[in-house]
Design brief:
Structural class of chain B: mainly beta
Shape of chain B: globular
Distance between the termini of chain A: 41 Å
Strand content of chain B: over 45%
Largest interface: A-B, 25 and 27 residues
Structural class of chain A: mainly beta
Oligomer: heterodimer
Order of helices and strands of chain A: EEEEEEEEEEEE
Strand content of chain A: over 45%
Radius of gyration of chain B: 13 Å
Number of helices of chain B: 0
Number of helices of chain A: 0
Number of strands of chain A: 12
Helix content of chain B: under 10%
Largest sheet of chain B: 7 strands, mixed
Distance between the termini of chain B: 36 Å
């Protein structure tokens, strides 16, 4: 079935640093791809999505481009803030009606 | 939009006991999902309801697990004869449409500890 692999964390950055969290996928066809974020003490929430190849999803300064050539959907942000500290999950439809999530990457941003 | 509500937030039980969790989805959402999350892992799918019909179950859902959504609104997840390996965060999510068009809205989860 469909699956995602994302880089292990934790990733620790200084405020205003550039962020990349890698995500690669294995899928039949070209499913929608998602990034979800879990802030401390909160439930997971959708950060951004891309529904077809070459689409770019963006939200809150984060971006991810659906690249079918490299089967990747890397998450990037040009300048992170302390408030971006969270766990980030790459996800895709896993067949049927479910989302399949990666293992999550914890981001810690320090002053 | 009051969000997805899960109760209780924490549950500690002894091995062999039964536990039941409740999820109240966003009111207009007809799709409801249960996931399980262990430390350092992403959420793992358990089961899916559309209205009151349970349309999909994971192989992870052993016969000790049962979920219901009797009136297509709230849902319950029961674990019978709990084992220490059942210790995890149990997450509920709801949505109004298919995955490509409607995001999953997650609750804060119920943390189960089996001693």
């Amino acid at each position: 079935g469909n699956s995602v692999t994302q880089m292990e964390g934790p990733v620790t950055l200084s405020e205003e640093a550039f962020l990349t969290i890698n995500c690669t996928y294995t899928a039949t066809g070209y499913p929608s791809l998602f990034w979800y974020v879990q802030y401390p003490g909160e439930g997971l929430q959708l950060l951004l999505k891309a529904t077809k190849a070459d689409d770019k999803g963006s939200n809150k300064g984060f971006e991810a481009t659906y690249r079918k050539e490299t089967t990747s959907f890397h998450l990037e942000k040009g300048s992170v803030q302390v408030s971006d500290s969270a766990v980030y999950f790459c996800a895709l439809p896993g067949g049927g009606n479910k989302l399949t999530f990666g293992t999550g990457t914890q981001l810690k941003v320090e002053l | 939009d009051t969000g997805v509500s899960q109760n209780p937030r924490h549950k500690i039980t002894k091995r062999g006991q039964n536990v039941t969790f409740r999820c109240d989805p966003i009111s207009e959402h007809n799709r409801l999902y249960w996931y399980r999350q262990t430390l350092g892992q992403g959420p793992e799918f358990l089961t899916y309801f559309q209205n009151e019909a349970q349309l999909e179950k994971s192989r992870l859902l052993s016969d000790r697990f049962s979920a219901e959504r009797p009136k297509g609104s709230f849902s319950t997840l029961e674990i019978q004869r709990t084992e220490q390996g059942d210790s995890a965060m149990y997450l509920c999510a709801s949505s109004s449409s298919d995955l490509a068009n409607s995001p999953l809205h997650f609750g804060n989860g119920t943390r189960l500890t089996v001693t």
